[in-house]
């Protein structure tokens, strides 16, 4: 894609206003970062309304783009922290609020959200870059203290997964569909998805990194058996390295002829999960499996 010129970005705000009125093309695709800029004011207003922002709230916005959502959030929130990957978009957003009262309420972080150290926030709103949907969810869930609510836009297929799969349900107490969106505005047809979710509070008594590591193995191939996923190339070797590290840190004797494959298979058999398929497992199944591995000194992070 040709490099954008400054003239092009100076026209974005005017273009968004003119095009949103016709509602012919509510989403502008920036291929470099997989980001989609909302241009339909009805969609942006609906997302902000669903957040029920209080005047005392600090809001985290992920992927603000040129600020079509940001300017609406700034009208209601005490403070907004926006995390933007694209420096060009960050510059446009800065220019958009420059000299206005809302400028003092906006803090901008330029960089990768998944790697960013997040400050305190009460509410998260995101027109999520689709390529970071899953990492974004887990990064939000690992943040402390927990936010009150998250209003997130995803592709419909991913959004539907959030409500039915244990790898997400273990950390999220409630997920509710707010609206489905397509070109032209709000509708009941397929397209992008705006969802509302609340983290479990208190969260499950497990380290997030441990559960995430287990989930990556179990859900790597959802329709395969759990045994098949653990026997995939490199998994047993990785678990043995983790086990040896744990033994070293806890002054445990390391067996000379350890058979990690047999250890893993015994745990799967003893917990009754060997022939289970990931798509059929629930939260209790995963917690019991994780506990059994930990009892054997096998960790995932």
TrEMBL record:
Q: Which SMART domains match?
A: rADc (SM00650)
Q: Which UniProt keywords apply?
A: Methyltransferase, RNA-binding, rRNA processing, S-adenosyl-L-methionine, Transferase
User: What ranges does the record list as Basic and acidic residues composition bias?
Assistant: 1-17
Q: Which residues form the Ribosomal RNA adenine methylase transferase N-terminal domain?
A: 43-183
Disordered: region residues: 1-26
The record's EC number reads 2.1.1.-
The stretch of residues making up the signal peptide is none
Q: Which InterPro entries match?
A: KsgA/Erm (IPR001737), rRNA_Ade_Mease_Trfase_CS (IPR020596), rRNA_Ade_methylase_Trfase_N (IPR020598), SAM-dependent_MTases_sf (IPR029063)
Q: Give the GO molecular function terms.
A: RNA binding; rRNA (adenine-N6,N6-)-dimethyltransferase activity
Q: Which SUPFAM superfamilies match?
A: S-adenosyl-L-methionine-dependent methyltransferases
**EC class (word):** transferase
Which Pfam families has this protein been placed in? Answer: RrnaAD
Positions annotated to bind S-adenosyl-L-methionine? 36, 38, 63, 84, 112, 127
**At the top level of its lineage, which domain of life is listed?**
Eukaryota
Which PANTHER family does the record associate with it?
DIMETHYLADENOSINE TRANSFERASE, DIMETHYLADENOSINE TRANSFERASE-RELATED
The family note in this entry says:
Belongs to the class I-like SAM-binding methyltransferase superfamily. rRNA adenine N(6)-methyltransferase family.
In Swiss-Prot or TrEMBL terms, this protein is called rRNA adenine N(6)-methyltransferase
Top-level taxonomy: Eukaryota, Fungi, Dikarya, Basidiomycota, Agaricomycotina
